[in-house]
């Protein structure tokens, strides 16, 4: 692996059209039973190969075996009834029909561990595995049992910790918790959000990351972004406490966003996955555009702590666009690497 500016992705990548309807979230599977199991593994292999072709250093599964980054994990737990739906407001942004917590939540068996072992067997490169964070999980459910967002988050943190420990044992190098909800509920993040995240990573020896973004490039998110004004200072509310946390890496949306780059100063000392690819547009960045974002970030992130990344997952994009963006990410990182090493 290149030691300077190792590239990675936020997580999800497009699925092949024979596995699920492209450019759609929560797209239903096109296969069933054994065919589906095999299809997911084949898609994982393809996704890995595309990341490798594009020169990505820290690779992942492209989330090929899950329909959605939050829902699929919860589907494997007991205590949540997916048939009993209630309409709730997700991240204060849009209404959605969600499953109901009907009893104590628990994990009866591993969720992604076999998939992670499969990925591990395919490559010797460092691998990163994404899990939803506790706060983002509770925000996509109706809680008819605990009646307390905080209490449910602590329960999920315990479950995530069980899964994370087994992922680590399966050879995962970086475990990432996706917490887009951190960009919305600042008081809760500071009161117990970061604490539950630390509970989820308790006892792990591998590196841990938290991904905090402004969401996929779907309409509800782009409309919400329009209401945020000319400067997005959400990160400012949570960075001081995050800087003091034991999470190693912070994954952020930085490209084409209105986040003032100087906010990164607040997490100085942490590794930062700098989003240098916009996932809300089909326009493929030029390497020079990627390099410009990385150079800006380098004013506030030490070079040995900067990992070029995508703003968010690319599941809703076409495969061709996503691959082009991965290549641009690597080419842009290469420009800046050469500048840094003087080669
Ligand atoms: Zn994201």
From TrEMBL:
E.C. number: 2.1.1.13
GO biological process: methylation
Co-factor(s): Zn(2+)
Record bears the keyword Transferase: yes
Molecular function via GO: methionine synthase activity
Transmembrane segments: none
Lineage: superkingdom: Bacteria
Domain Cobalamin-independent methionine synthase MetE C-terminal/archaeal: 5-330
Name under which the protein is recorded: Methionine synthase
Organism: Cellvibrio fontiphilus
